[in-house]
Prior knowledge:
CATH topology: Rossmann fold
Number of helices: 10
Order of helices and strands: EEEHEEHEHHHHEHEHEEHH
Amino acid sequence: MENNIKIKVKNLTVKYNSIIALDNINFNIYKNKILAIIGPAKSGKTTFLRCLNLLYKLNPEIKVSGEILFNNVNILSDNTEVYEIRRKIGMVFALPVPLPGTIYNNLAFGPRLKGIKNKKELDKIIQQSLKASFLWDEVKDRLNEPIFNLSGGQQQRLCLARVLVLQSEVLLLDEPCSGLDPVSTAKIEEALQELKKEHTIILVTNNVKQAARVSDLSAFFYLGKLIEYDKTSEIFANPKNKQTENYIMGKFG
């Protein structure tokens, strides 16, 4: 399994002033797998994603120690090229945050920043990303329409496509189906099963049934600690920790 490790998390601790948000987290994240991170509110799930994407650097009050080895390089180092990491480890938030303008321009923005100006090349990249996010058939004749003509579920899949156009290696999804209808949720879950063939996916979800449906591995966080980490089938069928069992059974959360 060592050759299949995409990210190693070593002794990761995060403090907001004197509050410990993550307490000495250690585990490995594997290539081409979907990892679900579950746990009640204020367990550190989103904080963990923000460490992987280096968004914590936007808040000087946050202190992070330990290591996150991405492709065997510690991204928490002061020498890290932040924007390059954010390109390779892309994040989709709970609420879609599209840019103003057309569907096409939303997706072309990132590649244009990278210097891609050729329209045929842009068209190809955009089509590939929309197909990968299961949105192409719904918008292929609407690319010049305003982004806000799309439904909430479509906007969320477009935000996923916007990460894909940057050729991210890891996808971070922070409750991407929060507030979506069952049809939109099913389409995102279907997209994830295809995307894991080329990407490593980390999914924060408050929906334990979704975690059981879509993930290969699950990590249960509680009050900033990693309580249990295993194959999803094991976590849900035979949890080793009583807190994990109680959470999955809905006894708290």
